[in-house]
Amino acid sequence: MTIKIQPSSKNIICLQAEPEKTKSGLILQDDEKTRPEIAIVYAIGRGKVPISLKKGDKIIYRKYMDTKLTVGGSEFICIEFKDIIAKIL
After folding, report:
1. The domain over range 11-18+30-88 is classified in CATH as 2.30.33.40
2. Does the pTM exceed 0.85?
3. In this structure, are strands 84-88 and 66-71 parallel, antiparallel, or unpaired?
């Protein structure tokens, strides 16, 4: 099921990225203090985005700068454009 959601002008809605796994399926443990926050773009507000983004892009954002949301039973995070550090290419 696709959830239609439109964030306000200076926000993006993302899905939290899955933890990194090895080829055999083991989850790699990160040091919580050094792990960057990575998310997958789901919806983009209509404001001026500082970098080119589209649905499905992976981004790195500032730790503790997200708002957790539950819409239609799915969990999302809301991030302001100013808190995006980089796009993963």
Report:
1. yes
2. no
3. unpaired
